[in-house]
Amino acid sequence: MNVLHVTPAFYPALVYGGPMRALYDLCRALADAGESVRVLTTDANGAERVPAPAGREVELPTRDGASLRVLYARRRWRHTVSPELVRALAARMRWAEVAHLTAVYSFPTLPTLLAARLTRTPLIVSPRGSFGPWGRRRRRVAKAPFNALLRRLARRGVTFHATAGPEAEDIRAVLGDVRVAIVPNGVDAGEFRTLPTDAGRWLRNVASLKADDGPLVGCLGRVHAKKGLEHLVRATPALVQQWPRIHALLAGPDDGTERARLEALAAGLGIGERLHFLDGMYGADRIAFLAGLDVFVLPSLDENFGNAIAEALAAGTPVVASRHCPWPELETERCGRWIEADPAAVTAAVDGLLRGEPAAMGARGRAFIMRERQMSAAAEKMRHAYRQARVAS
Where in the chain is the domain with CATH 3.40.50.2000? Predict the structure, then answer.
């Protein structure tokens, strides 16, 4: 099957967080499953650009020896405005047997919807959380006409991809009774098959901590108000009373002024020396960071999936996550705590995990991910969604 992915950014532009990682892993798994995969994107990478040859596709290798072809169209304005992407779209849409658009409120969306309609190419659209409560509360007036146009264009030949049941509800809350396929993100099991044995020591060294400092709790991802990291900061004074050498580590790019706000909050609470900000962690460093934590904490205010939760579990680390993250398995699989997003709940959950059997919980979480959330299984479900989209169109 010829599969065209259209996305405003693509690997190695991991500055945009978990969705970019999930998309990259999905495209590689689809190619390894025998699909012919092409990606049309821009060279956007935050304030930087992805270094890529102008006007030529780049071949990226997959884990099992296949490849996918990527055209990094040059970004000309703002985040992802690219006339080159538009010029390249029509021919690729005619080549495709199914197209897959990632993101909604970005430049490639309308050209992709129109091109798919004109060529009668079945289209999958992954909002990646754009229709969640956090997004719906922001720029409502500006988004209203776009949503109305999207509802009209989505009536025929379009299937929306949700990563969990709550996201499917969010999509229908905005767009009405559209077709939705639920396919959870997966984890590249090959990356996590062998974990570092000295991750805790490595992480203490990276954070400039002493060998006997700990336990270590923290989060990996964009430092953004939506992530609810304020709840972890506010929980830290109470945790220090129970665990005098505890430290909180937050690794990821700052999304504006959130880091400064959290640093000021920590200083005001008297725990500034217990809060550590690290740069974004990628590749092997990301796995070592997750494996080096004693508890991973994501008290998010809105999460369509939560890739970092899956990866923390794959790294053998128990997780505390808010109920705004679609992870009831933390309780059912006994690998973490699924809580309300507030400091008292974070305090109780982290303290409870540390006093319980965190290693056993981490092992159960790792087994669950390797059993049920591997990327190869996610890719197979997505291939089924592609076939269903072709039949429906």
Answer: 2-186+374-392, 190-372
